[in-house]
Design brief:
By secondary structure, the chain is mainly α. The chain has helices at 2-12, 30-43, 50-87.
Length: 101
């Protein structure tokens, strides 16, 4: 389970960056790419450009791939872990409910 979640995390964020300067030393990950794209699109008073839409079209499937993996962990691996824990009288874990804003 840890390997699966770590693999997803490593695709989404740069886990080796501990300071803002580290961004230059390690590859940029999806979180930073999408964040930067959002800032660029938000800063304009016009619709997104063709280039911005192209970048989004490239990044969106990459994010969806990681979300599919995450949902699989939540639907299969966490329940399997809980079953094993229950058999050994260990308290169960559950993802926190989303907070309403």
């Amino acid at each position: 389970l840890r390997k699966k979640t770590s693999a997803i995390e490593e695709e989404l964020i740069q886990v080796n960056a501990t300071a803002s300067e580290d961004e230059a030393n390690y590859p940029t990950k999806l979180n930073s790419k999408l964040g930067y794209l959002g800032q660029v699109v938000d800063s304009a008073d016009a619709a997104p450009t063709a280039a911005e839409l192209e970048v989004f079209a490239e990044l969106d499937p990459q994010l969806e791939t990681q979300l599919v993996k995450w949902r699989e962990i939540l639907s299969k691996d966490v329940p399997a872990l809980n079953d094993a824990m229950q058999k050994n009288n260990i308290p169960l874990i559950a993802p926190a409910a989303a907070k309403a804003n």
